[in-house]
Automatic annotation (TrEMBL):
This is Uncharacterized protein. It comes from the Bacteria. The lineage of its organism: Bacteria, Bacillati, Bacillota, Erysipelotrichia, Erysipelotrichales.
Length: 65
């Protein structure tokens, strides 16, 4: 099974772009409040960072084989 990590990164980037737009839209419509719920904001940022790091780890392991 060959993994194309550039494609995986692109799909992940598009997902997080759409998720970020959705969160900002909900914040503007006052469905959620990022100013009062900093845990949500930092949680999303941390999960976003970790998801890209996981892809890098798998890419590094695949290149070592």
């Amino acid at each position: 099974m060959v993994m194309d990590f550039k494609r995986i990164n692109m799909i992940l980037s598009i997902f997080w772009l759409l998720a970020s737009i959705g969160i900002i839209y909900l914040d503007v419509k006052q469905v959620i409040s990022l100013t009062r719920n900093t845990g949500l904001f930092f949680g999303v940022v941390i999960v976003m960072f970790l998801s890209f790091q996981v892809v890098k780890i798998f890419e590094k392991r695949a290149s070592q084989k």
